Amino acid sequence: PAVADGLSAFIDQRLGKVVVPAPDTPAFIANHLGMFGLVKLLHAVASGRYTIEEVDAITGPAIGRPKSATFRTLDLAGLDVAAKVAADLERRLPPAQAAHFAMPAFVTTMLEKGLIGDKAGQGFYKKVKTADGSKILTLDLHTFEYRDATPVKIASLETAKTIDALPERLRFLMQADDKAGALLRETLTPAIEY
């Protein structure tokens, strides 16, 4: 306690920062929050209401995130790594919180088939050679075969491209009466309540 008090006083008085004591919890805060959101998105796709392409279109630059969005980023990081982090959180957190980290069944199938991302050459996406170069295929979560990508046509995403300021764009998308608004309300709002 003496070390914590001294450090808090230094941070407050010398650095001008507010110290917020918090109880210890498993995982880094970024993993804890990031995995919470990721698992919500995986369950949204598992529900069949959204495609992989739709989730990536909604969760990328439209909401201020990288172009790699959700599933391309997951391919880069590795589904196996994400599954281990989620399983660790599920195992170590109290039951009420742990339930938020249970992966949908398709993740187990992907892991069994080695569809873990870039390090295996295939995950949610797979790059294949064509006669005139290459193209990116998308995993079909019903058959676990790859298919041509389906173009995403969501009206609010098109309109959002004309809104430069991120806070206004997010507000617009959260209120949209289409798949973009529904997905964002379903996956971001619970994070605030969690």
Question: In terms of topology, how is this protein built?
Answer:
Layout: H1 2-13, H2 29-46, H3 52-58, H4 71-77, H5 79-92, H6 95-98, H7 105-112, E1 125-130, E2 133-139, E3 146-148, H8 155-160, H9 166-175, H10 179-193
Helix pairs in contact: 2-5, 2-10, 9-10
Summarize the structure in words.
52% of the residues lie in helices and 8% in strands. With 194 residues, the protein is mainly α. Strands 1-2-3 form a three-stranded antiparallel beta sheet. Helix 2 packs across helix 5 (79-92) and helix 2 runs antiparallel to helix 10.
Helix content: 40-55%
Query: Main sheet?
Result: 3 strands, antiparallel
Whole-number mean pLDDT: 92
Tell me the number of strands. Answer: 3
Cα(first) to Cα(last) distance is: 29 Å
Class per helix and strand makeup? mainly alpha
Q: What does the overall shape look like?
A: globular
Strand order of the largest sheet: 1-2-3
Gyration radius, rounded: 20 Å
Uncertain spans, ≥5 residues at pLDDT below 50?
none
| Beta-strand share of residues | 5-15%
List keywords for this structure.
194 residues, mainly alpha, three-stranded antiparallel sheet, 10 helices, globular
Nutshell version of this structure?
The protein has helices at residues 2-13, 29-46, 52-58, 71-77, 79-92, 95-98, 105-112, 155-160, 166-175, 179-193; strands at 125-130, 133-139, 146-148. With 194 residues, the chain is mainly alpha-helical.
